Amino acid sequence: MLDRTVPYFNVIMKRQAGRPFPQAELPEGYAIVRYTPGSERQWAEIEASVDEFGSVEEAARYFQKRYLPLAGELEKRLLFVENAQGESVGTIMCWWDDTAGRRDPSIHWFAVKPEYQGIGLGKALVSACLSVMIELEGDRDIYLHTQTWSYKAVRLYGRFGLEIVRDETFGPYHNDYDRAMPILNAMLMAEWEEKGEGE
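Request: output the structure for the sequence above.
Response:
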């Protein structure tokens, strides 16, 4: 879930080429599957459930315009986590962005339904996405755009070798490092203390 109570600033993260990252396994009863035609509805439901869009319909319209024209790429790059009943409960895109004529591998639209968070699905999705990206693009720098509203995810990304960068950016994204870092530091420290991890 996004925390819209904090100011919004853009955050750019990067996993440098060659940097190792942990392989994370799914809990029993879950499986990672790839996009098949028609599963865009499940993507829209997941993204709406974490407040990335105001409604499932809005998410579906965005997906249809932005990604559906590249259905062949979706079948290689869009991952879902399914539960034992075959319901899609998490998703991530192993995508790319164009940066002044350069193609940059980048992670798009990572989300896990709120009721399924905290059991390791997100870790498995990020790990799988990085592996797919390297398979498709080679072991290159991999980028990610996120924001201060997603400070909990920032910590997760860090565990997989993605670091917040001060000056770089990619694609169409701004880098608000100087304004974002005080907020990220404060929110992550508060969360740390709340869980008693600072003792």
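Helices lie at 40-49, 56-66, 71-77, 121-137, 151-159, 177-194.
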